[in-house]
Amino acid sequence: MSGVRAQQKQKTRQALIEAAFNQLSAEHSFSNLSLREVAREAGIAPTSFYRHFKDMNELGLTMVDEAGLTLRQLMRQARRRIASGGSVIITSVETFMEFIDTSSNQFRLLLRERSGTSKAFRAAVAREIKHFILELAHYLETETPCDKHHAYMQSEAMVTLVFNAGAEALDQDAQQRGELTERLIWQLRYIARGANHYGA
Amino acid sequence: MSGVRAQQKQKTRQALIEAAFNQLSAEHSFSNLSLREVAREAGIAPTSFYRHFKDMNELGLTMVDEAGLTLRQLMRQARRRIASGGSVIITSVETFMEFIDTSSNQFRLLLRERSGTSKAFRAAVAREIKHFILELAHYLETETPCDKHHAYMQSEAMVTLVFNAGAEALDQDAQQRGELTERLIWQLRYIARGANHYGA
DNA sequence: TATTTTAGCGTACAACTGTACGCTGAAATT
DNA sequence: AATTTCAGCGTACAGTTGTACGCTAAAATA
User: Where's the HTH tetR-type domain (chains A, B) (predicted)?
Assistant: First the structure.
């Protein structure tokens, strides 16, 4: 029932996705990928592309899902580290920086399409980020003295800062990143402190 | 010495810039503007474009400067309002939201090119934002009990949150914007509180 | 007045894009 | 074994892009 055929199809589908991710870089964003180039890198004819996606848009949305998945998996791993005694703020920041380093093209996709030209893309990225915010908010609500509403606002602010720091880190060398991370941690402390003050 | 000729040249140059801004929208970003379309909207032949800019890139950088200028002017006006007795946080946020509303395409340019595919663009936008941060940091340093380093970090965090809230606001209706703004103000309060605590 | 400068135009071209259409061969189904 | 399904291919086409080149007319300069 697995099917030699269906299996092969899945394989070239994945090849298309990977080809597209490979072509993302600091100088190349999703919106200026071309269907033909992606097909070429995946090793299939341009017209075969349509056997897998109706559109470059459809490919892109799939890629956003995949990037979101990567991020969620990484964060699950972070929670494990936190549970076994790490600092919440520092562990989270480190994990996120790891994501940016090892999956920079996936991060770039989220980063850019968050304010890109397709409403569907923007919504998809916003959804991924919201997951993130809600998880952190849940943690803050149960583990710190902070009411629900303030926990959410606190979480939202923190995620925004972390995400933005990630964006800046993309263009920086190791030393600059170190300073950036240090500043970021202070800023997260501000928020934690302030939220706990106002949020009862 | 003003020159009928130089004057006309300046005029069509400005027409090109305005044409390009007009073609920006939620669905159209700078990187997928075409030289020909811009020239067409400005009412000149495609090849005449080169009499004014060597490149679409050069046009874009000019546009970033112009958007930065608009923003700085608006903020100077905000400081006047603050000096005559307004709340710093609320006045700044209101002014920024005004910018997004009345110059949304200029904001979109800054927003997108901040993480765009051209390093020069990214640097140009970063410069504009840094202006912003430094000005606010200066204010915080002199007007609140906060040492220099913490004032900078506080300012950076605040500007990041405001900028990002602006990005979200672009896709929202009046009611959602209201809620967003309210959350943003709380988040800025967190930061102010936390920074004043840690920053002596 | 004679000369130089230059903003803007039209033509032309090669490169590239998305995609419609029909074929093929092998896997899947009957 | 006969039939159907379908991933992938090649060809073809119309549309768009950036830009090289040389011309023109009017403004600026000498």
Answer: 11-71
Number of domains chain B is built from = 2
Cα–Cα distance measured from residue B64 to residue B78, given in angstroms and rounded to the nearest whole number:
21
Distance separating alpha carbons of residues A171 and A65, to the nearest angstrom:
25
Q: Are B133 and B167 in contact (CB under 8 A)?
A: no
Judged by CB atoms closer than 8 Å, whether chains meet at B191 and A195 is answered as: no
Q: Are residues B48 and B69 in the same domain?
A: no
Identify all chain B residues contacting A29, using CB atoms and an 8 Å cutoff.
31, 116-117
Q: What is the pLDDT along chain B (200 residues), one digit of tens a residue?
A: 468 999 999 999 999 999 999 999 999 999 999 999 999 999 999 999 999 999 999 999 999 999 999 999 998 899 899 999 989 899 999 999 999 999 999 999 999 999 999 999 999 999 999 999 999 999 999 999 999 999 999 999 999 999 999 999 999 999 999 999 999 999 999 999 999 999 87
- Identify the three-state secondary structure at position A127: helix
CA of B165 to C1' of D21 (A): 50
A28 and A102, same structural domain? no
Tokens 């970033």 locate to: B64
Do A91 and A123 lie in one domain? The reply is yes
A57 CA, D24 C1': separation in Å?
47
Residue with tokens 């968050």: A114
Domain that holds residue A188: 57-198
